[in-house]
Structures are given as C-alpha cells and as structure tokens.
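Repro:
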Amino acid sequence: MNFFLINMLFVVFISSNLIAQHLKKGEISKKPYRTSTKKLPDWVKDDKTYFEEKGEEKGEEKDKAGKIKIKMIASAESKDGNVDLNWLQSVLDAYAVKNYITSIKTIATRELGDAISGGIGSVKKGEYCQDIINAVAKNISFSSLFRTNLYWAIYKKMDSEGNLGYNYEIYGMYSLEKSAYKEAKKKAWEDVVPKITSEDNDAKKILDDAKKKFLDENK
C-alpha cells in the first residue's frame, strides 16, 4: 500500500468520524451528502402528491383528455453507502402503479356517486357501484404511464448503537394519460352493467340515466 493511498484512507476515516461526532444516535443528517442534481427541483419541494392536469385544446385526442400525475417517494437504508439505484427505481415504479390503482378507484367512486343518486333497484347503490369501480381499476391500461422526473438524495445517519449508515430517498413524478382512464370506464360499464341489469330490472333505468354522466367525454 503506497503512502498516497494510506493518506487517502486516513482522510476518509477522519471525515467519517467528524460526521459521526455531529450526529446523535438514531439521528439522520439534515443535509444530503450526495444528490442526483445540485439544486432541489421545484416538483420535489411541492407538498402536493396528486395532480389532475387538463389537456390541450389542440393536438391528439389523448392529449385533450389531460393527465393524472402522481409524485411517489421510496427509501432504503445501507450500512456501507451502496444501494442499487436501479432496484430502488423499480420499487418506486411498482409503488406508482399500486398508487394509481387506488387513485383511479377514488376518482371513479366520486364520479359514479355524482352520476347515481339514491338506491339502485332492490339493493343499495354501493353494492353495484363497487363492482363497476373494481372493473374500472382492473381494466386500466398502464401503457401510457411514464416516469417524467426522477430525483434522489443520500443522507448519513447514526444508528441506535452509534454506527454510521446511510439513508437513500428517491422521488419520481409519474404521468398517466387520462384517456386510459376513460377507456377503462367505458370497458367496465360494458362488462359489468349488463350483468347488473339482467339480474335487477329496477336498476336498468337508473343506470341508463347515469351512463351518460359517468362516461362524459368532457371529464
């Protein structure tokens, strides 16, 4: 081992100990020591994690429908500072799909609730509505889901035993064409409603009246 390498290792050892002295047990550094960009992006600073963006008047049909945007955050810990960022990105992507399914169900619940008032036929509307909402989520296509932004930061931390470790935080902004949601609503209606009306004649008129409002292309 040459003199230069010995000195370099000594400097790293001293630096790590200085950082350790400033951190209490169980504490994470307030400032990251490594980031993917020099400046913290505005979209990461923004407290909002969900956005519905209106489409452009001009352009393709899918652009007119607008976009549903979600900001996702994932984290990981490491004792030696080595975390596979590609793996962490894949975890983030999986979280995004799961979150989109939840969000789609929330939107569909709200819109279907607005379209239908009172009960449907011989049972409460909730029982039929849930079948439609679940079908919307099942039929959603994620082929138009894209990760549009990515940012990561690494923080140093002290564990409960006084050992220095690292916390990784990764942020992703995702965008889904709202046209995919509209197609899923249409397919869900075609799949589920005929089964409901075939079993409950009283529900037919109410669902016929609700169809136009629920499948409204301007939403």
